[in-house]
Histidinol dehydrogenase (Polaribacter atrinae), 854 residues
Amino acid sequence: MNTIINPPKKDWTQILERPTKTVDDIEGVVNEVFADIQKNGDAAIQKYTQKFDGVSLENNIVSVNEINEAINLVSEELKEAIQLAKENITKFHTAQKTAKVFVETTNGVSCWQEKRPIQKVGLYIPGGTAPLFSTVLMLAIPAQIAGCKEIVLCSPPNKEGKIHPAILYAANLCGVTKIIKVGGIQAIAGYTFGTETIPQVYKIFGPGNQFVTVAKQLSTKHGVAIDMPAGPSELLVVADDSANASYVASDLLSQAEHGADSQVILVSTSKEMITEVEKEIEIQLAKLSRVEIAQKAIQNSKSIFVENDETALELINEYGPEHFIVCTNNNDFYIDNIENAGSVFIGNYTPESAGDYASGTNHTLPTNGFSKSYSGVNLDSFTKSITFQKITKAGIKTIGKSIELMAAAEGLDAHKNAVSIRLKDLK
Amino acid sequence: MNTIINPPKKDWTQILERPTKTVDDIEGVVNEVFADIQKNGDAAIQKYTQKFDGVSLENNIVSVNEINEAINLVSEELKEAIQLAKENITKFHTAQKTAKVFVETTNGVSCWQEKRPIQKVGLYIPGGTAPLFSTVLMLAIPAQIAGCKEIVLCSPPNKEGKIHPAILYAANLCGVTKIIKVGGIQAIAGYTFGTETIPQVYKIFGPGNQFVTVAKQLSTKHGVAIDMPAGPSELLVVADDSANASYVASDLLSQAEHGADSQVILVSTSKEMITEVEKEIEIQLAKLSRVEIAQKAIQNSKSIFVENDETALELINEYGPEHFIVCTNNNDFYIDNIENAGSVFIGNYTPESAGDYASGTNHTLPTNGFSKSYSGVNLDSFTKSITFQKITKAGIKTIGKSIELMAAAEGLDAHKNAVSIRLKDLK
């Protein structure tokens, strides 16, 4: 880690810069795949699955047999772990339901707001070495609680044409209505335009590599919503002498193992803590299976010493971390005043991996500073709010004159007339 | 209007197609302006204001004097109308505040969700013939209620270098912190990169022409959030024999006057009502000041007869109208079952223009079918939710094993280790 002592404010932007790559150079291939799939549907899907995943599938819809096979392949103890996680995620996301908001703003003018589920959602689960079944829980559970009608899941097949059993098990457990073996750009294009087998959806959720990220961004141009823009995962820990250095090191490493471009930052008001954490990182790093990845991420990462909590907070709000761990003598100060963060982990016994799997909070969170404007995935991500209004004769008589005046002042005659024609009848 | 009787379902997509233009051809100019402003800041802003708005401004920040002048120029009766609208909008949006959601998902595992304001927001208000001060109310009021710190407003200057007094009056009344005379692509680029005078913001709100729309979309590539994608305004009315044909006609026309590309649709289970409404449109149209615009929009518009309410509802949900007026004997059926709509207006005395100005609901709504996945602007549009979690020793002992199992199954060693290292100490 690079240690920085008391950086002047003018250097913060540069110090906090994220190791994000530019995406311009892969837009070409994404555009090409989109155009092909829009035109040729499943035939093109099959072609790209062959090309990118190295497998030729006659049928890419996961069958009941495949699901049953997966159920048998997942160990009982993992099933129990998934069950516990599911229960906590369900509790926390169910509690996020909101009642109808009803207000009679003026006598006879009733306004209300109701949330309705997004009818068709598409979840994307990456393939690769780590089968992210936990992300299935994080997306499918709130989708089901929200009441989404179609919950589709796409994930790339491996060389044997299969999806990891834990992903299938979790998808089946959490109410996914259709599972399709398709990955990458082609999956996102399928969700965007619909094909013979992939349903067109209204909103796409889930992580992915740079190709998937750019594809999701392109899908918004075609009228599909996405959960949020994506970037490499990141963690910021603020720790003072009350923290446990080996715990802090373990948390920083758990983030670092995600990818060489992950970013971890330690902010501390204690130079001793920084030194201790750096020592602990060296000790723990050597024992990790993903040591090479974690090492690269750690090399890009920073320990920043600041004089006091106020400066630490200001710097953290400027960064807007995806994950934010607080282990200080002054935790409430950070909790009360944090403006920009995805999810906050408080105290020595709240590792970030708790939120990744089983505490109940969602792990799909805004990276890359997007916590300044975006929420992490939550129940509302799967709904939209609709407003309603009902005005009585008395109501329109009360507010009609104001509407007429404002419409006239905006030069919108017909808007005014829609009120005038009613007021005339009510005279 | 084009009347369509009992269209078969296979034709719905084509019948409901919106008159949206492609935006590809203006991306070039938008990219160019963005690059210039990123590099040259205010100097470039000034250049484009000269080029696009035809005025050279030495200082584009609206002064206290200009605001005082504007306050004097707005008539007392318009001020009163704005005040009434402000009160209703304030009531409805204040009621949308949500309490902290707190759940102890497992003994010793506390999770909660809190909304925090987006610190810096940029509002865009178009210039042109109609001074949209009502949109100032719809954006600045919820921003202020949410607690946004910086609420900036950009609007293009007219040839005299001024912004319409009603816009300045409304902005000052509703807590806008800085008003800048800059419009179009250059305003959005300014919000995206920041210049010497325009602050970089985290989220951009507000309507605009196609250039502004494309610029907003491009800003998302640079990490700025936007309220929603935009398209031409639209209204769908469902009416049966219980409706008043002249009221329905007045509502359709109030939408049609927005622009030649506005779309209005009448769906009815009564052929007589369709005939009457079309007659009424002809009568009322002739008297409008914006007759040419409204006429063009009406030419593109459709009256659709369907056999029953169920078919009507299905068709309406497929369309997902921005504004949806319900005037039938069966209103509750539509209210209960509408899945996709921006804002719903119920009964004979609830003209759409009520929601545009003064009922209290927001008028910044999803067009172009985006109501399938997007909410209209509401209080939450100016906040993001942050999740928090705090786990006790007992808590991590209860859920720790599950986290270890899941992390191991995903091949994420360091995630597992962050829990193991704590559990070991607690044995």
